[in-house]
Amino acid sequence: MSEQSFTDAEEVPDTVAIESKLPLNAIDIESQKDMESGRYHALRSLHKWFAARPTPAVRLAVLASVYPGEIDADELLRLMQIGPKELDSGLAEFVESKYSDEKGSGTIDDHYGYPNPNTQSPTKTEIANLQATLREAWGGDLPTILDPTAGRGIIPFEAIRYGLPAKANELNPVPSLILKAGLKYAPEVGSLDPDIWEWRDQIHETAKENIEPYFPTEEPDRQILNCALTYIIQCDSCQGEIPLVSKWWLNKDSDGGDAIKPRYEGGTVEYQHIRVENQDSSYDPEDAPLRGRDAECPHCGVVNEKGEIQEKIHDGDFEYSIYGVNFETKAGERGYRAGSEVDQKGLEKASKRIENDFDMLTFLSEPVDVSSRTNDPTSYGMDEWRDIFTPRQLVVQYEFLSAFEEYKSQILKRYESDKAQAILTVLTLAASRSMYYNTRLNQWHDLRGYGSHLFSDNNLSFKRMSVDNNLAAPRRGYQKHSEHVIDSYETLVSYVEDAESAELASLDAANLTSHWEAESVDAAIVDPPYYSSIMYAELSDVFYVLQKEYLSETYPELYSSGLTDKDNEAVANPYRFEDIADDEQSKDDLADEHYESKMEEIFAEVQELLSPGGVMTVMFTHREMDAWDTLTSALISAGFTITATHPIKTEMSDRVGVQGKASADSSIFLVARKENTQSTSRTLWEDVQDDIRQAARNQAEEILDSGYNISKTDTAIAAYGPTLQKYAEEYPVVNKKGEEIRPREALSQAREAVTGVLAERFLKTDGIEQIDSLSRWYILSWLIYENDTIPYDEARQLGVAANVDIDNIKRPTKIWGKSGKDIQLKSHTDRVQDIVMLKNDSADNPSSRKYPVDPTDTRFTYNIDTVHSAIHVYEREGARAAWQWLSDRNLKSDQEFEVTVTALLEVLPTESDMRETLVNLVSGETGDYLDINLNHIDMTKEGQTELGDHQ
Description:
By secondary structure, this protein is α+β, with helices and mostly antiparallel strands.
């Protein structure tokens, strides 16, 4: 064991607030509020980027990482702008009580009685008092905050908002541009109003005039807003036209909605607009050619399979087809109509323009360089970034760029350099945001009547029904998007009018000491890349290639390369290693190795930049144990020791679009100190194993006892923090052979310990440890995850805790199946053979081949097999046969059967069919026979009262 050796107490606080107790519940509540639409940070509104943390969590990390000693909960929350100003004390309790109270009809702020903290900056007095406290604790100077992987920059922005010096680095040029706008120009240049509106309007008017011919309309008083777009392919059997539409809705509303009624005649398709509520029952807008990814020809009925369809799209054997149009009249009324020949003429005109305009030949012609991890669009023939646009979309983008270029020189002449660059930057972000809503990869959104944004699922998946916006029109056009961006910028300006700008860098975070001096920062707040969840560079290329067209001369240092840097990005992308993987190292192993190496390099740079005894707070949100193992190993190898951990809710619990849903809903804040001495002694794993389990157990019990609002799943994640802290204290840890024990083993012990705590707290059935390990794993899975779908890695780790290898039992038991990156727990309907067919000795009995459990057996390998068989018999043959089946196997006296049944009654969802049958099984005369004690279970489903009720 090594001793922690910090710098002189006169220069660095012995402890900081984040190393002590914090009002986590109140901050979690505020973080959840922050993630509601329209309430989040203005940097998120400025331009798309990925995985933003809620502002309250960020403020906590920034302030508590530098505030000396402990901080009173009221003082901290007041500084974070949480709670009513007139309340002197009890802020945390107030927030928690408001969270529990029934919400009224007003806004969230009305209910809580104070404004959105995001919109509230600290007062000058609050900043002065904070700075005085910090100067005294940090040797006379204000502590400098570093964010080495800043993304869009919420962490450093909040630092300068509180008057703290900040340094921010980001490898990727796309968020680097956001950093320039928010952390340089907002505090240095300030407001761009009214000048920027003048230039915005001139760009819009020029582009509008040039793209108007590409949006012809038969009605002179109507303007096209956006179009619902699909592809028409030819049927291989009859050569008829097949529109690749899965449903014909354009816009759903309370009355019914707008839809298209196709007419198929002579191998062609025509579109008719209808109001659904005016149609008879024979019309179904859900009845369309596309079924899954296959398409049934509406002319001859032959199914064209997905592989054939993909090949046609890839090879260009299709036609774009506009099947619906959203329009606006001169009176401002909006409506829908069917796509017609005039719309096709607009598309054709754009195609001819691209073919004949020499200047457009190389526009956005950079290659698409993405992996299958992000749904590679090249598999659909989109080999260059220009290909993700329809011809008309590409022309529209080019015309807006041309209009920007027309006024760019005037802007540069009229203003000083910084203000000119600020205007050009914000206008470019507006163009980039407009593009984000107008590609072939944007899904048509029939619940809203227009297209969705590009990264609704954080990938580049092909859309068979997409959108084509008229960017010169209202609703989803350039004016609306630029207004959103400019307003966001002006909001940022209002927050940092008196602040100093942050120091910015845009380079590999493993090379920060080439840009900043060693020991030049005091606290680092690190929100590391999401391991394997988001492929930032691959996704951001679509923005990069367009922004490069606008700003390559303005910022040559950002836009000098063809595409974004994927080699130095700290992500675990197995598909980047497909060509070099071999039998000794799989692509997953190589991806993990790359991520760990990059994070270790980054942490090492942070270590060198930190002042002696400096603080690093790492936010990490992930469920996969591999991610935690890798990150912790990198942190310790870089010379840090963990001094505190906190679970913080930083994600929406129902968010989508994270690969494999591998991210948890809570983050763990790992607080680490720069360790000045390295340990030379080694700790034996057997000596510390019980302590690590106890640390995890204590954390879980503390969370449950405190009433902290956190899911069972995240309780296990929260226990990772103290586990890793204990592991880091004892590092290096080895087994009796002298082999290194990695953090994964400690985390596995933590998972097992927490599972035990959760079972003790939430499972009232006694004797769960008596049943077989497979059945125990099945029950615990339902208990902790409360549904049948579980991330694979977590299911596997839970299996370790239950002493079962879920991979080994998958095939013989079919107790679970694969569902993407998840596993799906199987019920009796997926496992038990048909007892009626077995008794009749039916030769045509597919269940005997498909399913492993034979209900005619008298003894079963696993307790869950017995229970599943009993449920099957009850459902298939009725209560009387079930009574006989139970009696023949003497299950009344089977304690393990009783434990399995009662545990399942506790953990299965009330509405599930399996639980409903179990309720019936333990009721009536079958229940009288079993005589199971159910006093500890909430029986919310009524069972049978007589055997005849279920004959």
